[in-house]
Amino acid sequence: MRYDQDETNGKVNAEPRNAEAELFAEILNRLDEKKDGSKDAQPGNQPQSAKTIDLVELFYYMLSKLHYILLGMLIGALLLGVYASRRVTPIYTATSKLYIMGTTGSSIIADLQIGTVLTMDYQEVFKTWEVHQMVNDELGTNYSYSMLQSMVSVANPEDTRILYITARHPDAQMAADIANAYATAAKKFITQTMNTDEPSTFSIALVPGVASSTSITGYVIRGILLGTVLVGGALVLWFLLDNRPKSPDDLMRVAGVPTLAVIPRNSQFPGSRLHGRRSGRK
Question: In 66-216, at which residue ranges do the beta strands (DSSP E only) sit?
Answer without folding.
Answer: 92-99, 152-155, 162-169, 200-203
